[in-house]
Amino acid sequence: MFTKSSSSFHTINSDFQLSAVDKLLYFIFNTINFFWDFKHPKGSVSIEKFVFRKAKDQTFEDVGGTSVTRFLCNSFWNSIDYNYLKKTLGSELRVVDVGCGSGNYSNILKLTKIDTYLGVDIFPSPMWQQIEKSNVAFQVSSYLNVEKYLADRNLLITQSAIEHFEEDLSFFQGVQQFVQKSGQPLIQIHLFPAKAGLWTGLLHGIRQYNLRMICKILQVSKIEKPGLLILLGGKNSNRFHWNTVTKNLVLHRYNKVFTFANGYSNGLIKSIENDTLENNPRKTTFFALVLQHNVTTQLRYEGIINKTSDNRD
Fold it and tell me: HEC states along the chain?
């Protein structure tokens, strides 16, 4: 239940069936995590706010059936200027996606000029066979084996994955040890839930993150240049998720989740836009952490995020 290899002081995993006592402990321990938040990663990262911009071809219908957290994350991935990353690395993008699940993010990345994509997960998905092609592959492996599949990869990503890793610090330490030994250029981009996720996502993974826990990740990562900590969403997005999704699920009103008739799509967009000026890391919905290793150019938010929210040109 307890390990120093975790950024949280517990490893109660809600991905597996929990007893009533363990469910209670899960909420108690993660709540304690939030109150114990006295550190700030000053100097180690630049804290930036992700400003959502509606894509040229994006319609409100695209939002249907999507939670505000998923929509925020998808918008972030679609806003990245992958050409900027290629120029920074000095080569084509060779992506490894750890904790890839069904491999959906290979589809989001396919519109960019990536060279290869490798999805890694401890559980195989039946969707992999439908997605696999010459430059898209999948592999069953643990996040703890990260050094084995980083060879010849220069962009490491995770989406809602590290909160499921019992030893998340061991994962980042493994990455650090690989880049130190190999000297290989690598950019990491990780998206993971902030503390609001405990009340919007309820039983999800092991933990949600705060600044103290992010400081632990930065400590074991031993980055030579400051990283970027990008804030996605805020109190309005959190409130909208609770009112439209979480509350209905708790009350077993499944037919009212993601309901167009109640203006779900318009409300979701409005809540995200209202969070544009919310720059408090303790109220954010999701974090995006960007780290770089053996890369000469300092990554900047203005370079990573394409201001047109369209990276396919």
Answer: CCCCCCCCCCCCCCCCCCCHHHHHHHHHHHHHHHHCCCCCCECCEEEEECCCCCCCCCCHHHHCCCCHHHHHHHHHHHHECHHHHHHHHCCCEEEEEECCCCCHHHHHHCCCCEEEEEEEECCCCCCHHHHCECCEEEEECCHHHHHHHCCCCCEEEEECCHHHCCCHHHHHHHHHHHHHHHCCCEEEEEEEEECCHHHHCCCCCCCCECHHHHHHHHHHHCCCCCEEEEEECCHHHHHHHHHHHHHHHHCCCHHHCCCHHHCHHHHHHHHHHHCCCCCCCCCCCEEEEEEEECCCCCCCHHHHECCCCCCCC
**What's the predicted TM-score (pTM) here?**
0.90
Write out the chain's pLDDT in tens, 313 residues. 556 788 887 888 888 888 999 889 888 888 887 776 666 767 788 899 998 876 544 444 455 567 888 889 988 998 899 999 999 999 999 999 999 998 888 876 665 667 899 999 999 999 998 888 888 999 999 999 988 889 889 999 999 999 999 999 999 999 999 999 999 999 999 999 999 888 888 888 889 999 989 999 999 999 889 899 999 999 999 999 888 888 887 776 666 666 655 678 888 888 999 998 878 888 899 999 999 999 999 999 989 987 655 444 4
According to CATH, the topology of domain 20-304 is: Rossmann fold (3.40.50)
Domains of the chain: which residue ranges?
20-304
